[in-house]
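Researcher: For the annotation table, I need structure tokens for N-acetyltransferase domain-containing protein. Please keep the output clean. Sequence:
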Amino acid sequence: MIVPTLAGPGVRLRGLTPRDVDDLVAGYADPLLQRFMPPLPVPFTAGQAREYISDVAPGMFADGGGLWAIADPGTDRLLGGIGLDKVVPHRGQCEVGYWVGPWARGRGVATTAVRTLTEHAFHTGMARIELLTHRENTASQRVALATGFRPEGVRRAVLPNREGGRDDLLAYARLAGDEPGPTERLLPDLPGGELTDGVVTVRPLAPGDVDFYARLHSLPDVVATTVPPVAPSRDDMARRCAWAQSHWLAGDRADMIIMDAATGTNAGEIGLYYQEPRTGQAMIGYSMLPEWRGRGFPTRAAQLVSLWAFAETGVARLIAGALPSNLASQRVLEKAGFRREAYLRSRLPAAHGRRTDDVQFALLAEDLLADAARLDG
């Protein structure tokens, strides 16, 4: 059969050929691909690659979808693969999937390939294209957002994994009538990957922070301010770290580590929780290791995060709460420019089925401007 060749900036989508066997084997040997493509045989042999080219690819076209090689337009070397399957003709619906070999990553190959193929699919009659990805696969989520796919939710236990269980996948979709261009993000990346004032540095929480996060969230006084006030399990904390980037991309939460700028030592955490995008209100919360308390770090971190939120996002109002007994946290907020607004009775769950009051503070962008003007004066 004749596979239509599709051209995009820096890529060419073409049919798979026998000369792609070695690169196909090399690509499918990558642990990252094996992690996020559990149906993939491990090891993937040259014989399986030839069968993939001769049988699997034509079968996908016969089912109304298709499978293309992502090739370098200059050398024609295989860079990855992309396909359309799960076709439902009477709905005009299908699913897009893709992979890029380690030798071709960081060049925008996947983004260009997805954009090129989805536009081709829409022009040939598709009305809706879905993209499913593991929550830990933030590179794929970035591709989805960059190509105009919008997050729709979670497909629970939709994909069998190698351990005999089933994985949840995040669901993204793009419609033929959607506006072109990337999907707007509520929470952009930090400029340069971090915020700093020379004393404190704030960076995103990462999968490698599990040990630090576990120590911090095992402290009794930190657990007491958790909602609900129950110590998370090690698995819960590992998931929090592994999924932090995904939540950031989704725009619902930005989890960050507070570090000593001089040494790079982890000292605490601070998070921004985008509770009400429609009203432009978000909440911040923070915790510090005991040995780093009393140095003004959370105040500096709160100021850095507040400035970033007001300058780079749609947040117009930041709120924060503190237990009535937590005078140190209240002082942190006041020094960071927050103003006390309310005393909310029995707002939060407490230990042993009880409830506790919450002292509420708020910060507006104009508060920061007023404070800056007063200091300049």
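Researcher: And a one-line annotation?
Model: The longest strand covers residues 78-88.
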